[in-house]
Amino acid sequence: MIEIQTVKSEQRVSARELHEFLDVTTRFNDWIARMLEYGFEEGLDFYSFLSKTPNGRPRTDFWLTLDCAKEIAMIQRNEKGKQARKYFIEVEKKAREAQKHLTPAEQLLHNAELLVAQERKLQEHNQRLDALEAKTTTRPDYFTVAGYGSLIGVPVNIKLASQIGRKASQMCKERDLPMDSCPDPRFGQVRMYPRGVLEEAFEKVSV
Description:
Number of strands: 7
Order of helices and strands: EEHHEEHHHEHHEEH
Strand order of the largest sheet: 1-2-4-3
Largest sheet: 4 strands, antiparallel
């Protein structure tokens, strides 16, 4: 039916293959955007990646976790959706049966791989949250000095923020790059800089 890929000890399904199997009449891009609005989170329930069309044009595709694929199949509320959901449940059942025949060492390795995958998901989730907290402007990839420091795990005090801010402002003026600003509860309006500029500024100023 639908090919199941195992990536980093996690079973995944191609969203495009699922769309085709379900005989959805809605265009794939519109359909997947609507499906992912049901509370699914990237890095936990699905993964986006760039691929190419048969004509060589770039496009965005998605891997879905088995749980995510099951829920999306249920949402369709048709016979094809029921078939897909039963198929995914059977795949999970066979995977659990296969685990019963693992040796203790193989089971330990399997559990370790699952733990690593879960920790990687949590780390990716936290990084996205940090990025959302740091980015409070309509400009893409613009951050405050303190916000970017939080994003990369570097504590920034007032003195360091001032030094990096001066360096970033100088670099923006030299390169004719626009700066932005956002409200700060402590200092009123604070400047925001492009991510690339902040990356260089943090490297040039001793932190």
